[in-house]
Amino acid sequence: MVAPLSAWPWENLGVFKYLLYGPLAAKVLYSWIYEDSIKDLWCLHILVICALRGLIHQLWNSYSTTLFLTRNRRIKQEGVDFKQIDREWDWDNFLILHALLAYMACLIFPSLDDLPLWNPKGFITLLFLHVTVSEPLYYWAHRLTSAYDKFLSAAAGHATFLEHLILCVVIGIPMAGSITMGYGSTSMVYGYVSAFDFLRCLGHSNVEVVPHEVFNKLPFLKYFLYTPTYHSLHHTEMGTNFCLFMPLFDAMGNTLNRNSWHLHKKISSDSAKNGRVPDFVFLAHGVDLTSSMHAPFVFRSFASVPFSTRIFLLPLLPVAFLVMLIMWAWSKTFLISFYNLRGHLHQTWVVPRFGFQYFLPFAMEGINKRIEEAILRADRIGVKVISLAALNKNEALNGGGTLFVEKHPDLKVRVVHGNTLTAAVILNEIPKDVEEVFLTGATSKLGRAIALYLCRRRVRVLMLTLSTERFQKIQREAPADCQNYLVQVTKYQAAQNCKTWIVGKWITPRQQSWAPSGTHFHQFVVPPILAFRRDCTYGDLAAMRLPDDVEGLGSCEYTMERGVVHACHAGGVVHQLEGWTHHEVGAIDVDRIDIVWKAALKHGLRPVSSM
C-alpha cells in the first residue's frame, strides 16, 4: 500500500530540481543588476530563509552523527544503514515546496514588502496562534494519518509530500495570522521558521540533549517541550506521542506514552557512563584534506557513496586545512563510525593525522604515540581485536605493529595488521594458470609474502629490487626446490613480456609503458596507481565485502563500494570472529595465508572480484 500524495512532483528530476528556485533567483538578480534596488525583496528573503533552514538541518545532522560527542547520548543504538540514507537522500524537497508556496503568497499579497523589521507584538501573537491553532491542528492531523507513519522516515526533513503540505499549513497559520492582524515583521518570519526547524531537528536527532534535571526543577515544562526521547517513542511504539512540540496535547488526548519521562531520565542520566564496549576496532587515519570531508559527520549522504573529488568540496578546503592544524595540535584518536555483525559491535577509530604527515620524520614519534594511546585505551576498556590501517602499520613507523606488542607484552587486546588477508586477496585474484608475474615493492612485508607463496606454486616471480642482499634473504626463506623461481630484476624493461604485474610500489605512467598490451595491474600500493594504459586493466586495492547480515553500516570506506572494506580491516574482523588469541604483527606468516583466507570465506566475507 502506498500512502496518498507520498510522491514528490519533482522526484524524477534529480539535481535539476534545484532549477525550481530559478524564478526567485532570476528576480533577485534582475533587480540587483538592472534596477536601483531589489524591488521583490521577499524573493531574496525566501532564498536566504531556505539556505538558513538547510543549514540548521545540516548542523543537526552533523551533530547527531558526530559519534565521539554523542555516542553515550544516543537513544536508538542501531546505526543508520544505506537503505535509510537512500530514503532520506532528497530530504530537502520540503524546502523547495515551502519556497514555491511562499513565492505564491508574495505574488498574491504584495503588501508583504512593507513589513517592518521588528514588531514585538507579532511574536506574542505568533506564539498564541502556535499554541492554540498549530499545535492542536498538527496533533489531530498526525493522529488521523498515523496509519501512514510506517511510510515516513525518522528524519526531520524527510517525510511524504502529504505531511509537508500539512506542515505548510501548520507553520503558515501563526505567521499569516500575525501579519493579517498588522503585527507581522521580517524578524518574526525568520525567527519562527528557524525555531520551528530547530525543534523538528531536535526531536528527530536520536541524541538526548535535554537534561532531565530541567524537568525536576520545572516539572510543568515537560508538557510544553518535547525531547528526542519523547518523540522516538512515537516511532517505536505506534499510537502514542503525536504532538508537534508540546506533550500537553498528548496528555489531553490520552496518547502520552507513560514511559516517556522515565526513559528520558534514564538516557540523560546514563550519558555520563561509558557505552557498550566494541569487540573489534579498526584504527584508520586520514588520507588527504579532500577525503577528510568524506566523514559521516560532514555530509552523511556523501559518506554513503565511494569517495571521489567533487566540485562542492573545493570551497571547504580552507576549513578542512584549519581543522587539520587543530587536530595536529590537540586532537586525540576518535570514533567515526560503527556497525554490528552477529551481535558484535565493530567500530572505526581515526588517528587524527593525514597521509603526508606519516612521511615527516619529526611527526613519526607523535603518530606512534597516538596509535599507542588508542591500543592502550582499547586494552583498558576490553576490546578484543584492534586492526591497524595502511600507514598506521608502516614498517618504518612501528615495524608493522611490532613496536607496541614488544613494548606492552601484557596486552589483552590482539593487535592485527591484517596483511595476511591482504596477501590472500591479492594471491587469489591471480589466475591459477599464470606462470610468471612481475612484482614491485618486492622486499616489503606484503611483497615478500606474495613472492614466497607464488614460488611455492611454481610461479616465476620477477622481483624488482636494487638490493641483492634483501632479495637473497627472501630467496633463502623459500624451499630449496623453489628458490630458482625467484628472480631478481633491477629494471622495468625486464617485465616487457609479462602480463601480470603486482604493484607494491607506486609506478609512473612512463614505468607502466613497459608492460605489454593486455597486462593486468594488481596492486597493494597507497595511493593507487594512475590508470594510464587504456590497453591494460587495473585492479582495485585489496578488499573484501562484509557478510550480508551486517547491520547499521551506512558509510563507505574511502573509495570502496558500499559494504566493502579494505583487506586489513577485514583481516581484523576475521581475527575477532575466529577468536584467535595471537597478535598478527611484523612479518607475514606465509603458512597462514590459506588459513586466514578460508576463515574469511567461512564467515561470509567475499572477494570483491567475485561479485
Number of DSSP helices? Answer: 24
Number of domains: 3
Strand content: 5-15%
Number of strands: 15
Basic shape: elongated
Q: Using only CA atoms, what is the Rg?
A: 29 Å
Overall mean confidence score, pLDDT: 93
Structural class: alpha/beta
User: Termini, distance in Å?
Assistant: 33 Å
Characterize the biggest β-sheet.
6 strands, mixed
How much helix is in the residues? 40-55%
Which stretches are poorly predicted, pLDDT < 50 over at least 5 residues?
none
User: Largest beta sheet: what is the strand line-up?
Assistant: 5-4-1-3-2-13
Domain Very-long-chain aldehyde decarbonylase CER1-like C-terminal: 437-607
Main location: membrane
Subcellular location: Membrane
Protein name: Very-long-chain aldehyde decarbonylase CER1-like C-terminal domain-containing protein
Features:
611 residues; 3 domains; alpha/beta; six-stranded parallel β-sheet; elongated; Rossmann fold; six-stranded mixed β-sheet
Describe this structure in a few short sentences:
Helix 20 links the parallel strand 6 and strand 7 (460-464).
How would you describe this protein?
This protein has 611 residues and is an alpha/beta fold. The chain has three domains: 16-78 and 89-271, no CATH class; 280-413, no CATH class; 428-539, Rossmann fold (3-Layer(aba) Sandwich), CATH 3.40.50. The protein has helices at residues 22-34, 41-64, 67-70, 82-87, 93-108, 120-144, 161-180, 186-204, 212-217, 228-236, 248-252, 260-270, 289-292, 300-303, 317-330, 364-381, 395-398, 402-407, 419-429, 445-456, 468-477, 509-512, 567-578, 593-602; strands at residues 280-285, 334-341, 344-351, 385-388, 414-416, 436-439, 460-464, 486-489, 500-503, 520-523, 537-541, 543-545, 550-551, 564-566, 606-607. The strands form three sheets. A six-stranded mixed β-sheet has the order 5-4-1-3-2-13, with helices on both faces. Helix 22 links the parallel strand 9 and strand 10 (520-523). It is elongated. Keywords: Membrane, Transmembrane, Transmembrane helix. It is a multi-pass membrane protein.
